[in-house]
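Justification of computing resources. Each target in the renewal requires a structure prediction run like the one illustrated here; the chain below, 178 residues long, is used simply to show the kind of job we budget for.
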Amino acid sequence: MPTTILFNKPYDVLCQFSDTDGRRCLADYIDLPDVYPAGRLDRDSEGLVVLTDDGPTQHKIAHPEQRMTKTYWAQVEGTPGNRELAPLSEGMVLKDGPTRPATWQIGEGHIPLWDRDPPVRERRFIPTSWLILTISEGRNRQVRRMCAALGFPVLRLIRYRVGSWTLDGLKPGEWRHS
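Resulting structure tokens:
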């Protein structure tokens, strides 16, 4: 029977099982043989990583043609409105080509968060906002690049959902079998 686990990756942890530079990685949290991340999450991003030992499950999650959706909570610099965020719904053109349309909403304080170590930098006179974005592809740093192209740099990025799996009930650094 295939093994699939859900892991809440903390900030500053590599999404791989070893690192020659001694940085924190998956092996510091998960001691299971033969499971591998289905897709990646950048070192400076947090949240849900699905790991499995099953090739078809890996393919379903990671391959772009499968169009499995992923939802992110993005804390951005500034206060975008509907008009500024509208290009997300149409798909945007980034340096590596057009994106698929994303769904989005402006977060209104209902995002359950944990403290980040280290904390996100705060600027006294620049407000921040939370966006909830769902994409159906997973290009390198895609959410960060889309938000930056709109003029709203990402300060904190948390992947909340992959397909039907969510972070619910997982604290940073915790994992469970799916």
